[in-house]
From TrEMBL:
GO CC field: membrane
Matches recorded under CDD domains: EAL, GGDEF
Location of the GGDEF domain: 289-422
Assigned keywords, A-Z: Membrane, Transmembrane, Transmembrane helix
Native source species: Caballeronia calidae
Protein name: Response regulator receiver modulated diguanylate cyclase/phosphodiesterase
Gene Ontology MF annotations: catalytic activity
Keyword flag Membrane: yes
NCBIfam families xrefs: GGDEF (TIGR00254)
Length: 688
């Protein structure tokens, strides 16, 4: 007896098989994401039911597509049995797919089991027709159908396992393609199985009166589609909820991280550091151990931020954070308190020298320079160290004292470290007083200028002067710039003070001119913060015009350290100064780390040798003299004049003259003088 196929129903069976496979894949992805075993089991059971119904109903549509010229029906119990097999097989399949590891042996064993299961479902379904005489099966096609079932199951399990991670790319498209492949495999098995069946002539269906085949198939198709779709929707909805729950957890994590870590450098922030110090105090109290707090900030960081922009500033902070982390040991804490302030906590200290070594290591690391974007920069920290328990027994006092020690390190020439000492507290109080005094100084007229003469090396004639600022406060007395300029620099007041110095110098120059004195050139010191003012030169020119002084009468001194901090910018700055008729001197030469290439490109008029080297002429004998002589030769070869600062003894003067030093400045020749005294000195000197 031969049957025929209704092609529409064959296509419908393929659609159902594909949809069932897709649902299975989607659910397996869902299950793989679940960690709670209760929910996992629920999904496994529900998924198995819908997938089983899907496969099973595909089988029935397939049966319906095959039309026999006799009435057909199905035995309800056996049909239910074949559905039960389909659900069991599906449960087993989902379980295998979603297990974390799928070894080759396991895949093969599972494929055989699943293939056998599908075949069992199929042939049980056939048995439900209770054909009489029974269906005869072609052994080869029968074997082929089982082989297809096993191979298709293997492929399906493997694909599904690969796709069970829902986080991979294009997962939707991959699943659709895989579902289609799986659908073809399942349908293929069915139709091969059908081809194996041989309905004997004259056979009748013993179940023809049980359940009507058409009615059953239609109900099954609708029922199955509904179940598959509902399962899919549920799975999607649950995935969304899980995703939402996942993002809330992530967000929560982010908030916690933001509250405890610094977003720029990813280091612990102030709050976290405070907690860790508190914990360290408790631990140290119990174990009797010691620990150190290293407080540091970057010298001249404000200048970098102002002149190169915040992006470069941020890069510098990140690079510094990385260097600090490279320096410390595993158990130590590095934190950023804010701005350019960083703290390192070293626990279980053997001796204070451990902290000292760490400070030196950090300084050494930073001396190598760093690259902020495309800017090669040399940024150095100043470090203050406070030790537990001797320098404080609370978070506040330890941090405050380390900060005070850092401030001392800055006053002590920067790029260095200091241990906290009780006397430093007095210095901190003094700093506060000076800050207060500076607030009142400009309006109160507490600043004044002294002029220290400079003399020519050979002839000893007056060559010019350097303007040196003083602060005379009614309460705290006279202060030298070494005391208040770093404070004004920190607060930014130096910018206004700087303009005041230029104006005041111009006024004196104008007065001397009115008094009929010969014109003289005065050098004015510039500090780092002023250098980063965008319209510095324009503002200075405006002052000169107002006071009617020619720019040839003024030169500016830039310290070597500041000039080298951002050499390309310094070159540009000097060019603008020179275009406006000003000369430039590199001050305190020898204290920074000059690159000769840059020194040449600065095209400064003068090089001022730091007092330290002049002093060395007497103190350091032959070696000291060799250094000064080399600096002078170098400056001359670069077409610069050399000014020796701090000449205090006759022997220094003699030696400098022998070395052809161009100009001298120092207490031996003249102290810094009041404007009147210097004006008097100009009389008859004929300087230019
Ligand atoms: P500087 O530019 O190197 O100025 C030279 C310093 O050396 C002056 O100290 C001067 O009084 C001192 N000095 C001169 N000859 C001798 C000597 O023979 N022996 C010794 N021991 N010292 C000598 P001062 O006036 O205290 O100034 C210190 C620094 O303050 C200056 O160093 C300069 O960098 C800064 N400064 C001074 N005035 C100003 C200013 O108006 N603006 C800015 N931005 N900085 C200033
Ligand atoms: Mg100077
Ligand atoms: Mg100097």
């Amino acid at each position: 007896m031969h049957g025929t196929y209704n092609l529409w129903l064959v296509a419908a069976s393929l659609v159902v098989a594909t949809l069932a496979s897709y649902t299975a894949l989607d659910i397996s992805g869902r299950i793989a994401m679940l960690s709670q075993s209760r929910v996992r089991h629920a999904w496994l059971a529900g998924g198995a039911a819908s997938m089983g119904i899907g496969i099973w109903s595909m089988h029935f549509i397939g049966v319906l597509a095959f039309e026999l010229p006799i009435p057909l029906g199905y035995d309800l119990k056996i049909t239910a049995g074949s559905l039960g097999i389909a659900v069991l097989v599906s449960f087993f399949a989902l379980h295998v797919i979603t297990s974390r590891r799928l070894t080759a042996a396991r895949l093969i064993a599972s494929s055989v089991l699943m293939g056998a299961g599908i075949a069992a479902m199929h042939y049980t379904g056939d048995a439900a027709m209770r054909m009489n005489p029974a269906i005869e099966y072609d052994p080869r096609l029968f074997a082929a159908s089982i082989a297809i079932a096993v191979i298709a199951s293997g492929a399906a399990l493997w694909i599904a396992h690969m796709l069970s991670d829902a986080r991979q790319k294009n997962v939707l498209a991959k699943r659709t393609a895989a579902a289609f492949v799986m659908g073809i495999a399942i349908t293929g098995m069915h139709y091969t199985g059908n081809a194996a069946a041989n309905f004997l002539p004259g056979a009748i269906c013993g179940a023809a009166n049980d359940v009507d085949a058409r009615w059953l198939a239609t109900t099954v198709v609708l029922f199955t589609l509904a179940i598959l779709i509902i399962t899919l929707v549920l799975s999607r909805f649950d995935a969304r909820t899980a995703l939402l729950a996942g993002s809330v957890t992530r967000l929560n994590g982010q908030i916690v991280r933001m509250a405890t870590f610094d977003t720029l450098t990813d280091l612990p922030n102030r709050r976290t550091m405070n907690e860790r110090i508190e914990r360290a105090i408790r631990g140290a109290k119990q174990s009797g151990s010691r620990f150190a707090i290293l407080f540091m900030d970057l010298d001249g960081f404000k200048t970098i931020n102002d002149s190169l922009g915040h992006t470069v500033g941020d890069e510098v902070l990140k690079a510094f954070a990385r260097r600090l982390q490279e320096c410390v040991r595993g158990g130590d804490t590095v934190a950023r308190l804010g701005g350019d302030e960083f703290v390192v906590m070293l626990e279980n200290l053997h001796a204070p020298t451990d902290a000292e070594k760490m400070a030196e290591r950090i300084l050494d690391m930073m001396r190598k320079g760093l690259l902020a974007g495309k800017h090669p920069l040399q940024v150095m920290p100043s470090i203050g160290i406070a030790l537990y328990p001797q320098d404080g027994d609370s978070v506040e006092s330890l941090l405050k004292h380390a900060d005070v020690a850092m401030y001392e390190a800055k006053r002590g020439g920067r790029s260095t470290y200091r241990f906290f000492e009780a006397s430093m507290n007095e210095a901190a109080v003094r700093t506060l007083q000076i800050q207060q005094a500076l607030h009142e100084a400009l309006n109160g007229g507490h600043f004044y200028l002294l002029f220290q003469p400079k003399f020519r090396g050979k002839s000893g004639e007056l060559a010019g002067a350097e303007a040196l600022i003083r602060l005379d406060h009614p309460e705290i007395g006279t202060l030298t710039p070494l005391e208040f300029i770093p404070i004004a620099e920190r607060s930014g007041q130096i910018v206004q003070i700087g303009y005041w110095v230029v104006r005041e110098t111009c006024r004196h120059l104008a007065r001397w001119r009115e008094e009929g004195r010969p014109p003289v050139k005065v050098a004015i010191n510039l500090s780092p913060r002023q250098m980063s003012e965008a319209d510095l030169v324009a503002n200075i020119m405006a002052i000169l015009r107002e006071e009617r002084v020619a720019s040839e009468q003024i030169m500016f001194e830039i310290t070597e350290t500041v000039a080298m901090q951002d050499a390309p910018r310094t070159i540009e700055m000097i060019r603008v100064f020179q275009e406006n008729g000003f000369e430039i001197a590199i001050d305190d030469f020898g204290t920074g780390y000059s690159s000769l290439a840059y020194l040449q490109r600065f095209r400064a008029k003068q090089l001022k040798i730091d007092r330290f080297f002049t002093n060395g002429l007497d103190e350091n004998g032959q070696e000291g003299r060799a250094i000064v002589s080399a600096i002078i030769a170098l400056a001359h070869s670069l077409d610069m004049d050399v000014v020796a600062e701090g000449v205090e003894t006759g022997s220094q003067l003699d030696r400098l003259q022998d070395m052809m030093c161009d100009e001298m400045q120092g207490f031996l020749l003249a102290m810094p003088l009041s404007a009147e005294a210097f004006g008097g000195m100009l009389e008859g000197s004929g300087v230019v």
